[in-house]
Amino acid sequence: MHLASLRLPAPAKLNLMLHILGRRADGYHQLQTLFQFVDHGDELGYAVRDDGRIVLNTEIVGVPHDSNLIVRAARALQVESGCALGVDIWLDKRLPMGGGIGGGSSDAATTLLALNHLWQLGWDEDRLAGLGLGLGADVPVFVRGRAAFAEGVGEILTPVEPPEPWYLVVVPQVSVSTAEIFSDPLLTRDSKPIKVRPVPEGNGRNDCQAVVERRYPEVHNALKWLGKFTEAKLTGTGGCVFGAFPSKAEADKVSALLPDTFAGFVAKGSNVSMLHRKLHSL
Fold first, then answer.
1. Is the peptide bond prior to 239 cis by the omega test (within 30 degrees of 0)?
2. Average pLDDT value for residue range 172-194
3. Catalytic annotation, residues
């Protein structure tokens, strides 16, 4: 990334709860979920080009250049803003694909915010989040960068301030297809909406968990293992699972015991994303 003039993080997110209220006529699901960021993620580098080309210089196995969400985000912003500039992009990929921690959506959001800055477009957060929604339901939460209670398909966001513990995130060696989980006939789709604000304690379940555990034994095993030390939960549609700890030392201690069949990382929960903290310091 030595050629990059701007480097920014693309943080992971956790869904502290995820309830599915029903399926809409367009096939999307009505959700209620609680997003929180963690201080761990991908890193992207950017350098402006004056020939208008959008070039991702990092190859992602199995993802063609033009269908990568990073490239699609850059092109969408270029088209909508009428900007004649282009960009070179480098990606240091640390977040697993199909992990439910928002890797692709976070990369896309970081790209929108980075190019708004580098191309000096002056777009506000609402406009960027609106463009982001067309790329994926999780993109707006990363654009806004604040822990949030999300409703609708995940686009109606209310900022919240949950506790910020340390987390151990366990990464089973599987890539879970979100579409596959949401189309499973056994998925719970009739959770009662939570009307109370802030969201009351004890609503921490994830309606996708039973389906994911049934389809992916590795995720079931990860939940079972982590559950010996703390309450273990699935994030998003998986496959990553996580548990909260009161200190880094305690999370590190359990992380050191991880079996070879799992990867994992320890990270601090954060109600303001590390991307936004970095942007504010520019």
1. yes
2. 92
3. 13, 138
